[in-house]
Specification:
Layout lengths: L5 E7 L4 E7 L3 E8 L7 H13 L6 E7 L11 E2 L2 H12 L5 E5 L4 E6 L5 E7 L7 H10 L7 H6 L12 H13 L4 H23 L5 E4 L6 H11 L3 E3 L6 H14 L1
Parallel strand pairs: 1-4, 4-5, 6-9, 9-10
Antiparallel strand pairs: 1-2, 2-3, 6-7, 7-8
Bound molecules: adenosine-5'-diphosphate.
């Protein structure tokens, strides 16, 4: 019997470093998310944690593929793939037939068109403005003294929605602070914050052209409140990758596996 082969995907984002190890191109044996991105110790820690989980060392890894904003700064990669392609490959492997992938990360948001063969065909990206990205949610959560992981639960408890009228993150932050000063319900504010991200993201998707099925990956896909607000805004159902924040690392691991298999 042939020896097992391991392919590692490392996604070095602006906000978080992610690593995923695939055994024989199929089974995920190690994964990690470290909340520090490019230019920090995050990538190295993510690799070490995923290796530890898999009970492997670097010598066991047949191929390393880097992706993400900091992919070119990672030494030790056999292959490099753009995060657009990595998210497309990852989403297609989990949801064959997907045509639109929405990836919202810490600093940018992307709508990606996937063709019928699962390849990235076109994309629209917002990397100029924090509104509609994870950064917007991180800033708002801090003002509300919440962790981003609590936003979904707060949204689900909201009985109304407070509309956030500012499109700029800095002005929206002041707007939320002034609402708080008036004792507005925090859950309703969270719902309004999610709607604001959904409106921005929907406009990206419409510029690309909405073709179903739609999948969402990236860190913000962990927030079901944003996913539901976006489903409402676009009027479609959105599948969420169970790997969400690890979608890019997974796609990179598959990319590498295809190169060596
Ligand atoms: P990048 O690749 O740009 O570093 P990620 O795809 O890793 O970004 O996403 C980071 C974003 O994910 C953060 O800005 C944060 O808003 C969001 N996020 C991270 N963890 C959670 C969580 N547990 N619940 C909700 N949102 C989260």
């Amino acid at each position: 019997m042939a020896a097992d082969k391991y392919s590692m995907g490392v996604d070095i984002g602006s906000t978080a470093s992610k690593c995923l190890i695939l055994k024989n191109g199929e089974e995920t044996v190690g994964q990690s998310i470290i909340a520090s991105g490019t230019g920090t110790s995050g990538p190295g820690r993510a690799v070490a944690e995923a290796l530890g989980m898999a009970g492997l060392t670097m010598e066991d890894i047949s191929c390393v593929t880097a992706t993400g904003y900091g992919r070119n700064t990672f030494s030790g990669a056999d292959y490099i793939v753009s995060e657009l392609s990595a998210h497309a490959i990852g989403a297609y492997a989990l949801f064959p037939g997907v045509r639109t992938v929405i990836d919202i990360g810490g600093q940018d948001a992307k709508a990606i068109r996937v063709n019928e063969q699962g390849r990235m065909e076109n994309f629209i990206m917002n990397d100029k403005c924090a509104a509609g990205t994870g950064r917007f949610l991180d800033v708002m959560a801090r003002v509300l003294e919440l962790d981003v992981s609590e936003l979904e639960k707060r949204d689900a408890l909201a009985e109304s929605t407070v509309r956030i009228s500012s499109t700029c993150t800095v002005f929206a932050e002041s707007e939320v602070i002034s609402q708080l000063a008036q004792n507005v319900d925090i859950n309703a504010l969270v719902a309004g914050i999610h709607d604001s991200v959904a409106v921005r993201t929907a406009s990206l998707v419409r510029r690309l052209g909405l073709i179903e099925p739609v999948v969402m990956s990236g860190g913000v896909a962990r927030n079901g409140g944003v996913v539901r607000a976006l489903e409402k805004e676009l009027g479609v159902s959105i599948s969420v990758s169970p790997l969400n924040q690890l979608g890019g690392a997974f796609g990179a691991a598959i990319y590498g596996w295809k190169k060596i298999s």
